[in-house]
């Protein structure tokens, strides 16, 4: 029996979508307002899902207190109220699109979870724009 447990968190961060190998004109054409050289911010909503077997002794797939602590340490403590381009090492050479942010979050969490747990990340950049990452196929 597989059950999915979910935890939602919130963080605020600034970023600029920009490709350093492109001209200013091409960056503006592709990224528009998201290419603002002075950055812009989002109020991100993050949902992390863990799917696995229910432990017969605890009744848990994963202890939600532990998941909360993991998210605070690995994600919120690194991303919240930061400029992703300047303050988060993974984005020093990676464009901080919602897609890339979701993958980075997944990669930061995966090593801390048992191999038999399936991890999924859903990241809302706005109320209407969100991405999901379920790991490599």
- The quaternary structure here is single chain
Radius of gyration: 17 Å
Catalogue the unreliable spans: none
Quantity of strands, as a count: 5
Q: What share of residues are in beta strands?
A: 25-35%
Euclidean distance between termini CA atoms: 22 Å
Mean pLDDT equals: 97
Order of helices and strands: EHEHEHHEE
Fraction of residues in helices? Answer: 25-40%
Largest sheet: 5 strands, mixed
Structural class call reads alpha+beta
Count up the helices: 4
- Report the principal-axis shape: elongated
Adjacency order of strands in the biggest sheet: 3-1-2-4-5
Give a quick rundown of the structure.
The protein is of the alpha+beta class and 137 residues long. It has helices at 24-31, 64-79, 84-87, 98-109, and strands spanning 2-15, 40-53, 82-83, 118-124, 130-133.
């Amino acid at each position: 029996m597989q059950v999915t447990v979910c935890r939602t968190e919130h963080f605020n961060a600034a970023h600029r979508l920009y490709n350093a190998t492109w001209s200013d004109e091409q960056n503006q054409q592709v990224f528009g307002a998201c290419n603002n050289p002075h950055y812009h911010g989002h109020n991100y909503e993050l949902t992390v899902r863990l799917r696995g077997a229910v432990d017969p002794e605890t009744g848990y797939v994963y202890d939600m207190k532990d998941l909360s602590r993991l998210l605070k340490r690995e994600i919120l403590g690194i991303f919240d109220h930061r400029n992703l381009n300047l303050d988060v090492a993974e984005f020093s050479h990676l464009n901080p699109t919602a897609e890339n942010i979701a993958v980075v979050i997944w990669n930061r969490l995966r090593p801390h979870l048992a191999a038999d747990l399936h991890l999924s990340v859903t990241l809302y950049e706005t109320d209407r724009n969100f991405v999901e990452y379920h790991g490599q196929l």
